[in-house]
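Me: I keep going back and forth on a fold encoding question. No explanation is needed for now; the record alone will do.

Assistant:
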Amino acid sequence: MPRSRLGIPLERVDSLTVTTLVDNVFDVFMPDQGPAHRLSPASPGKTQPSATMVDGRAPDQPIAEHGLSLLLTTTKGEASHMLLFDTGVSPNGMIGNMDRLQVEPKNIEAIVCSHGHFDHTGGLDGLIRRVGTTNLPVLIHPDFWNRRRVQLPGGVVREIPTTSKSALRGVGFEIIEERQPSFLFDNSVLVTGEVDRTTDYEPGFPVQEAWHNDHWEPDPLVLDDQAIVVNVRDRGLVIFTGCGHAGIVNIARYTLALTGESTVYGVFGGFHLNGPLYEPLIDRVCADLGAMQPRLVVPAHCTGWRAQHALARAFNDAYVPDCVGTRFEL
């Protein structure tokens, strides 16, 4: 059942910087656009050994992979906080890009995992190897640990790699499991927790099953899918999704209900509109999201190329493509 309009007190921050550490795309020629600042091909960058180059060196560019990781830095008065949202898919992808982008992982104060799928959690391994034992808080939904599999076309079944609770606890991470909304950094970052499903067309992840009570059960809702929200002064609510399994429209509407706000400034992250199961939803998502009149739309990761094209047409200058290494200054 939908929760009532809560109007929880999300404090405004003075500024927000978002750095894309992992996404499906890297494009060294992508130009700056609005609040998005790209890496320039003219900028001196790191190099790496290459036996096939005349001088023995090749550019050490950021690596794209099928996953997502965002670094959020908020400022409010004299206080600044750094939050990691998801960690990408490979053990070395995110931490390698941190090195290339000169991000110091020891400055991260908390981690929020959008959900338990491995393309958002795999980089925890590289982070752990870099920072060692730490009591860093990791905020998740209790279903994050579910053992899962997917039923693919043609009867193919694939189990999804699951993050180890004992491994995270073993390195000192403070695991915080919460279904309800929660805050970080003096009420300036909202973690939505479990998202109400109020649209009648955003299906979650119908091909998914979870292991419960010694057998596989349908698990289409991906209830651990959660978003984070920041309210930026003079702009408004900025919503960050991992895959958006809860549905980007559901997520945006739930955020408005939680905060008591009437408008959304920006939506950023995976919208999960890729493939034949989701592409028929694209036009309706564009229409319902458009009714909220966001001024910044940054679809990433699993949004899909057809949805990217449709969102670009629907939102015109508000649409900003993402790529690894982009820094958004809000």
